[in-house]
Amino acid sequence: MATYQSIRYNVDYGGRAGALMPLSLFTSDGSDATASFTSGIDSTYDEYLFIFNSIHPETDAQRFQFNGSVDSGSNYNVTKTTSIFTSYRSENPDNDGAMGYASADDIAQGTGFQSLTGGVGSGNDECCSGYLKLFNPASTTFAKHFIARANHYHKDDFTEDAFTAGYFNTTSAIDAIQFQFLSGEIQGGTIGMFGVH
Taking 80 as the threshold, does the pLDDT of residue 11 lie above it? Predict the structure, then answer.
């Protein structure tokens, strides 16, 4: 896991001026079972942003997922409640696009990994990109909320835009985040972790 240079990027973030502090960078070496961020998630920042770029799966039709930890990454099994909806459009001009609520991908007080995409294709040009925002992970009073947005090249040759949100239903601090595909390795791409001022 590489570390970014300690510089700040000013951005228009969520309708207000803000700054992103680069903290850590995962770059796939082509054979990564998971991408884990086990340090740097603490009370320094109220928000953390993970940007994943061109994440390519080893295995066809796999969902890109994440989970949190309260024990520095020894276990990724935090109870969460989530919601996800998607829109898609096929490369085939004769097929209509659609929007839908993906209830099968929700978690209701479960500890499993939350999907951020549908079935990403494993073709040479297929991947997923997007972001995950984690709010106030060091709180020991409140649940920890997150929102995510991701787009992927589906294995059946359409673009799918996924909106995910929910909360870790724990008053313990979230101190690690892990990304993975449902099956197979991460064979390309980067994930950057930023603190948000």
Answer: no
